Amino acid sequence: MSAPVTLLELKAVTKRYATANGANALPVLNGVTLTVTRGDSVAIIGPSGSGKSTLLQIVGTLDRATSGEVLLEGNNLAALDDQQVAAVRNQQIGFVFQAHYLLPQCSVWENVLVPTLAQSISEIRNPKPEPAADRARRLLKRVGLAERLHHRPGQLSGGERQRVAVVRALINQPQLLLADEPTGALDHASATALGQLLVELNREEGVTLIVVTHALELAERMGRVMELKDGRLVQNVKNQ
Ligand SMILES: Nc1ncnc2c1ncn2[C@@H]1O[C@H](COP(=O)(O)OP(=O)(O)OP(=O)(O)O)[C@@H](O)[C@H]1O
Ligand SMILES: [Mg+2]
Fold first, then answer.
1. How far is the CA of 194 from the centre of ligand 1 (A)?
2. Cβ(54) to ligand 1 under 6 A?
3. Domain 39-63+82-239 in CATH: superfamily?
4. How many C-beta neighbours within 10 Å does residue 230 have?
5. Whole-number Å distance between alpha carbons of 40 and 35
6. Which segment of 8-17, 25-34, 36-45, 154-163 scores lowest on mean pLDDT?
7. For residue 185, how far is its CA from the centre of ligand 2 (angstroms)?
8. 233 pLDDT band (50/70/90 cuts)?
9. What residues have their beta carbon closer than 5 A to ion ligand 2?
């Protein structure tokens, strides 16, 4: 076994949202520190409004921290220009949200290949080891959707739609999969199955996983459970 390699590091990350009148609101994040090793699986729990989605959006480059550092493979995200940030977001990070955000007019096959359409010259020059179409076919089969390639999202169950969203998130072979309440809109059986699938894909595909969830059952399947409390991340006491 090789030594664990740090994939993601958060150092004293804070976030304040400015109020409408320009004054600084109370901090949502107040010094979040976290180290995530390649291949890790981490759950983030905490009450509604504690800043879980805010934190995930900062890690996912959808938002910027007010202060502190977010390092992905040692690169400080704040130091990247917009084009570099867009490349990181497209190539290194996959997202799964509570709502699937699939394109209703496109088939399952088309939906999972959408992220492969935006490729930079360097990605075209350095193609990934597994071609996108092969990967799409393999992963859709893996999540049990081999017979659904030409269905549209409206012709799928809720659990099936979320599985398409997971394949779409993995299609560009990201290092990091971020999931915000991925089972929040599913019934119990589908939620359990999706949680199990995420755990298995973390292992099989070697993708590092950070899952925000209210579902303790899902959280406890992750390697580590962290809790957002008063703007800081702490190890969940029940899982020490
Ligand atoms: N764009 C924004 N502008 C101003 N305030 C915001 C914005 N987004 C979030 N907030 C505030 O930041 C706090 C944290 O919100 P966030 O969505 O991160 O919480 P959460 O932990 O994900 O909650 P939930 O479990 O309900 O999804 C909330 O008080 C929210 O009102
Ligand atoms: Mg949220």
1. 25
2. yes
3. P-loop containing nucleotide triphosphate hydrolases (3.40.50.300)
4. 11
5. 10
6. 25-34
7. 13
8. very high
9. 53
